[in-house]
Design goal:
CATH topology of the largest domain: Rossmann fold
Radius of gyration: 21 Å
Distance between the termini: 53 Å
CATH class of the largest domain: Alpha Beta
């Protein structure tokens, strides 16, 4: 980009955040160079969800570069420090302790709920803050909540129930449901919330009760899903919810095709794999609904989204970047906005600022709810199918944006989520 384009890009991020904080990200307040403000990205750069972590790193790098080009925050440049948690709680915990020991107390990222839960348990002892950019365990803002934690994304209650409502609206005659989920916190949480949505919305919208069969549970990181697929084919369901994740999801869908799974399933709901499966299967991808954190085509009215997409295309040439990129970008902007507002890098001052700021992201203006630090932001999903005519091998047919305030769960920090199906 030339200077004019760089300033335009910054204006979408720094300028919008300045409106919330009362100032610009700028070096004008400090005459002499200052040490950098270090932000610690802990995410999965290897293992089954490496693609997620790599996307986060790209988004974080773009945000840091944009803010630094405008002079940094309170006259100090941002510095990104990256650690690979390998989607393992032990590795994530070691990384967080190491970063805290080196004075890096502003953490973000984390693809795995198991890693996030491990990190949350040590935040207060380490005087660190954490903004997660993917982990969807409800426990993070419920029974395991600590005030040094912030969820930057939507959560299963918001997204899965919204998707269930769309199913009741679009497919009222498809009322026999089941699914395939990983047997860990994320999988169980996503299914519980989707089932809760089915139970609420099918009687009121489709005018019939859903017939729900409990899902097939799979092991995380499995290489062979054929026995699970055989069990799935025997289920009396015609609508399927799947929250098998990352590389595991690609393996499952590819192995399911020759079993005739896509012919059996009248509706497929993929909880959150964005375009990962579509990129792998291309024209062989059946039509399905997929959860996402951000889809550039669905946010062309948002300046930050347009600028992020343009810069991502310049760097990666990927026409369909994963939404995790936008979440890491948002986390960097949130920290920069909070530090600007606090006028300090002291942990508790920044935490207090995060509770009250508004910050501009690729999905629009975002805030954290003070009671449980859950972000109020849209839930996003899209309908996609394989296409031999498309140069990408697939096409996104439509993007749905549900306002976060319309679907957010009641704040109950310290207490478990209550559902109709519990």
């Amino acid at each position: 980009m030339d200077r004019r384009d760089a300033l335009k890009t910054l204006g979408a991020v720094a300028g919008a955040s300045a409106a919330a904080t009362g100032g610009m990200f700028s070096g004008s307040a400090v005459a002499q160079p200052s040490p950098t403000i270090k932000l610690g990205l802990i995410t999965s750069l290897s293992g089954p969800v490496a693609t997620v972590g790599q996307s986060m790193q790209s988004g974080a790098e773009i945000a840091v570069d944009q803010i630094n080009k405008a002079g940094g925050v309170n006259g100090r440049k941002l510095e990104l420090v990256v650690r690979d948690d390998k989607a393992k709680p032990t590795d994530g915990s070691v990384a967080a302790r190491e970063l805290a020991g080196n004075g890096v107390n502003f953490l973000f990222g984390v693809a795995s709920s198991a890693v996030a839960l491990a990190l949350v348990a040590q935040l207060e002892q380490q005087n660190s803050l954490l903004i997660t950019c993917a982990a969807h365990s409800e426990r993070l803002t419920k029974e395991n909540f600590v005030r040094n934690y912030f969820r930057g994304t939507d959560n299963p209650y918001m997204r899965e129930r919204a998707m269930a409502k769309v199913c009741a609206q679009r497919y009222p005659t498809v009322n026999r449901w089941s699914g395939v989920i990983p047997d860990h916190d994320y999988g169980r949480a996503t299914w519980a919330c989707f089932e809760d949505g089915l139970v609420e919305f099918y009687p009121s919208i489709a005018k019939q009760k859903p017939v729900v069969t409990q899902p097939i549970k799979t092991a995380y990181g499995a290489a062979d899903y054929r026995s699970s697929i055989t069990s799935t084919m025997a289920l009396p369901a015609e609508g399927f919810f799947l929250s098998v994740y990352g590389g595991d999801a690609v393996t499952f869908f590819k192995q399911a095709e020759p079993f005739g799974f896509f012919k059996k399933a009248k509706v497929i709901i993929d909880s959150g794999n964005e375009t990962m499966v579509a990129k792998a299967m291309k024209q062989d991808l059946p039509e399905m609904w997929v959860g996402a954190h951000w889809v550039a085509a669905g946010f062309e009215d948002v300046a930050v989204s347009r600028e992020l997409y343009a810069e991502s295309m310049r760097r990666t040439k990927d026409a369909h970047p994963l939404g995790f990129m936008a979440e890491a970008h948002a986390a960097v902007v949130a920290y920069a906005t909070a530090i600007q507002a606090a006028g300090s890098t002291e942990t508790q001052a920044v935490r207090s600022a995060l509770e009250s700021i508004k910050f501009e992201t690729a999905t629009g203006t975002r805030t954290f709810r003070k009671e449980d630090h859950q972000a109020i932001r849209p839930s996003v999903f899209f309908r996609v199918k394989g296409s031999a005519k498309s140069p990408d091998g697939f096409e996104i047919l439509e993007v749905v944006r549900i306002p976060g305030a319309d679907v957010i769960d009641p704040p109950t920090p310290g207490r478990a989520l209550k559902l109709r199906t519990a």
